[in-house]
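Reading a protein record of the kind used here takes little practice once its layout is understood. Each number in the token line that follows is a code from a learned vocabulary of backbone shapes. One such record is shown here in full, so that the layout can be seen directly:
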Amino acid sequence: MRFMIQVRATVSSSRGEPPGPELKPLFEEMGAFHEELARAGVLLDAAGLRPSRQGWRQSYHPDGRREIVDGPFAETKELIAGYTLIQVRSVEEAQAWAARFPSPFPGQVCEIEVRQLYEEADFAPGGDMALAD
């Protein structure tokens, strides 16, 4: 089972300012946590994301048109600042790892969101993409 731990952006992280020396302890703690995930054999990937002003959104319309809107995006609470992708044996194991995830923005209200990824086994045989029972 794969799970993505998404770090939700804050107003300060969305500004995209270079990290200052005050964030060194956080980076060390996050690095140690990721090393622990790697030693346990559950870490697949982890990265921080650049601010939304360096990205874009692509919309798909029913008539086939595609529309691109450049960042930045105003709704910070809907943005992701980074992620950690893990592979574990159960939901409970994913919850246990997430419970140990360091606070991404110490001193600020912040949150992470954990979502399970679909696996090939979640879909019915034959490629019709219907969810299996």
